[in-house]
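Quarterly update from the structural biology core.
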Amino acid sequence: MNISEYKVAGPIFIKDAKTKVDFQADKKAIEAELEDTRERLGKLQDTLYAHGKYAVLVCLQGMDAAGKDSLIREVFKDFNARGVVVHSFKVPTDLEKKHDFLWRHYIALPARGKFGVFNRTHYENVLVTRVHPNYILGENLPDVTSVTDVDQSFWDKRFEQINNFEKTISENGTIIFKFFLSLSKDEQKNRQLRRLHKTNKNWKFSAGDLDERDLWTDYMSCYEDILNRTSKPHAPWYVIPSDDKPAARLIVASIMLQELQQYTDIKEPELDDKTKARIHEFIARLEKE
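Predicted structure, tokenized:
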């Protein structure tokens, strides 16, 4: 798979972003390839854990029904539970609002040796709040007393803060993957209808989802700005065609595997020479029990 075709390495227009990809393979073949890829990822994660010098942060963004939850379930299925932590960021709590907008993301970052998955991310702070600028008032910022204070300079500053945040954690050993799940409006409609038609899926539906759908154009404009302003060599965005869930999962898993394989220094640590020289002694001691 040529993963470079999904990476945002230059100016991008959201209207040109693909929502479908044709692998010329049936669902079973794609799922079999995903199974192989995630098994290899799982083994790599064990090595990363033993190595203990890098953390991996996986950021997932996309419109409602883009498939974030199921992607996490399927891509990370073969990971050791001790090596991956998933955070789903909802509306900020009262405690979180008493801190800067990045605080809750800082404290959720993965430790070295682990994967952290952000299901919705710090980018909600230049996405939902940009579509609904009145939400910023809830942060109780000293220089914001009305929506008129939430101007272009405010957003420029917030983008700068996000870029600095990612640069800092990257320079300290966190490998960053950012995936935008590109979903067509028609496919979102189909998935929302399935949630309504299937009783066991009703819990996923909220009337507010339809209100947000009405703001589709606004959200796409914000996403375009996000992709263009924050895709950096140390923290690139990947645009993942997501109308087909199995294909999207395979692309994400393949990108992570191929990129992480470039880190040739990620190896299991070796025993010190003194311990290594006594291995036969330790074996004999145990076998005598």
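The chain has a mean pLDDT of 95.
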